[in-house]
Amino acid sequence: EQDFKNIKEEILKLKSEKNAVILAHHYQSMAVKEISDYVGDSLELSKIAANIDANYVVFCGVHFMAESAKILSPEKRIFLPNIEAGCPMADMVTREKLEEMKAEFPEAKVVSYVNSSAEVKSISDICCTSSNAVKIVNSIDAKEIIFVPDQNLGAYVSSLCPDKTIHLWRGFCPTHHRVSKFDVESVRLKYPNAKLYVHPECRPEVLEFADFIGSTAQIIKACETSEEHTFIIGTEQGVVDSLSVALPDKKFYIMDASMVCKNMKRTRLSDVLLSLKEEYGEIEVDEKVAVNARKAIFDMIERS
Ligand code: 13P
Ligand code: SF4
């Protein structure tokens, strides 16, 4: 307990000495979220990263998020406190494989989910996140679209954009994709009066049961404004943890106990301290790759 208090104090002290800003995704642990200046979903954090007035940014999330922040603000020093924190879904599409798909559908425009590498973004027309994917796809002046890498978000967008022909990549998020309709049926038997709020990275068979579908920030907002009292949350455990603290009069249950992203949970307070103290985990992006990736992310921010 004392160690925990000391480490927190040291982080806060170094943070103000260095004029650093700490960003955290909703899926981080409560301990990390508590010492952060901003907590948000992918879109909110990328907007903050683009406009932040600080030269030293510690990004508590996974690699593609810190990389996107560096692409948006190349003059700033961006740190990923635990460099092992990657996103398995982002690794499911490579530049080479995407080039092959582009050759197969030469008329198609490429929309890449921000959960992708800088290399993949650099050969995409535009990025999207889970909170703006439908809007972005609808805003594109082409009928044919290649959507990478999440097959579930892609299928969800496809169902809401009937005028588009969307070619899906077969990537998926292990944390959301592992839940099946049978798991949903069993949790609903346990909490029959609860509303089911689900992230679009879940399988279509799971989304079918949902009372609300949205990004992490959209789910949080919807729970805040809802008149309902009990919710089953179909996204990563960190969202349930934040909601339980923020809205103590309401009840939140995770859709399935397996919904914990190992990579998001790699970042500990000791890692945050190291990145402030020893300048550990600095992210660099080759400017040749960053140029086009930047256009794809900025274009997304502008349209959302
Ligand atoms: P959002 O932050 O857009 O909800 O995405 C969830 C996610 O999986 C981030 O890795
Ligand atoms: Fe990647 Fe899924 Fe973890 Fe998000 S929750 S970082 S998409 S593995």
UniProtKB/TrEMBL annotation:
The gene is nadA. It comes from the Bacteria. Pfam families: NadA. Its EC number is 2.5.1.72. Pathway: Cofactor biosynthesis; NAD(+) biosynthesis; quinolinate from iminoaspartate: step 1/1. The keyword RNA-binding does not apply. It is found in: Cytoplasm. It comes from Fusibacter bizertensis. Gene3D superfamilies: NadA-like. GO terms for molecular function: transferase activity. It is an enzyme of class 2 (transferase). The keyword Transferase applies. Iminosuccinate binds at residues 25, 42, 113-115, 130, 199-201, 216. Keywords: 4Fe-4S, Cytoplasm, Iron, Iron-sulfur, Metal-binding, Pyridine nucleotide biosynthesis, Transferase. InterPro entries: NadA, NadA_sf, Quinolinate_synth_type2. Binds 1 [4Fe-4S] cluster per subunit. This is Quinolinate synthase. It catalyses: iminosuccinate + dihydroxyacetone phosphate = quinolinate + phosphate + 2 H2O + H(+).
